[in-house]
Amino acid sequence: MSPAVQLAPSWLNELASEFDQPYMRSLRDFLAEEKQKRTVIYPKGQEYFAALNTTPLDQVKVVILGQDPYHGPGQAHGLCFSVRDGIPPPPSLVNIFKEITADLNLPEKTFVTGDLTAWAKQGVLLLNSVLTVERHKAASHQGKGWETFTDQIVRTLSEKRESCVFLLWGSYAQKKGAVIDTSKHLVLKSPHPSPLSAHRGFLGCRHFSQCNAYLQETGQTPVEWGAL
């Protein structure tokens, strides 16, 4: 977990000191022990910080907060809600695509991949709260230290960036986003896109059109949500 190798310079400038904190040393030890036991961990080690490396701090204009990586084989690759190209989109992502299609009046078969890298390259930080998971064991790495690290990322974004849009879906993301300065950023909240809750207000939330309208109002380029 060497920050010099793994982190984009704009993030490293702000987060380098985190790697010397006791919680991070403890997290590093935990991951090393798991690997010694030959535990399968997702995503791959070089993808732990994929969200930060694909969307440098100085390019972030939208933030989507997820919880922890997908725990099925071949799915997680370091971007929240995203799966590798060729992997069927999981139910929450299907609902995200459904909402975008309705909100932006896009053709029904707009989305040909569940890989959201194209969003990340447009300045959409796709950040999970927990950056690793054990295969087939949802939430297995919660409480090991990642939350403290990603809390610092959210604080850094709130303090160092201007006029970002934070999309907080579900109570977990909304609690994590409580530190965001709403006087300088737009925060949009809804239920989670999971099939268990999407019908309670995620579907129909129109976050994607609201996001783009705000970006344009603040002199930024809107996100091409359908460009996947």
Low-confidence runs: 1-5
Shape type? globular
What sequence of helices (H) and strands (E) makes up the elements?
HHHEHEHHEEHEHEH
- Gyration radius over CA: 17 Å
Mean of residue pLDDT values = 95
Helical segment count: 9
SS class: alpha/beta
Largest sheet: 4 strands, parallel
- The order of strands across the largest sheet is 3-2-5-6
- Percentage of residues in DSSP E strands: 5-15%
Portion in helices: 25-40%
Oligomeric grouping of the chains:
single chain
| N- and C-termini, Cα separation | 30 Å
What's the total number of strands? 6
Structure commentary:
This protein has 9 helices and 6 strands, in the order αααβαβααββαβαβα. It has helices at 3-6, 9-15, 22-36, 50-54, 91-103, 117-120, 146-160, 171-176, 207-217, and strands at residues 41-42, 62-66, 124-128, 133-134, 165-169, 186-190. It has a 4-stranded parallel β-sheet. The chain has a two-stranded antiparallel sheet with strand order 1-4. Mean pLDDT is 95; it is low at 1-5. It is of the alpha/beta class and 228 residues long. The longest helix is centred in the N-terminal third of the chain and has 15 residues, at 22-36.
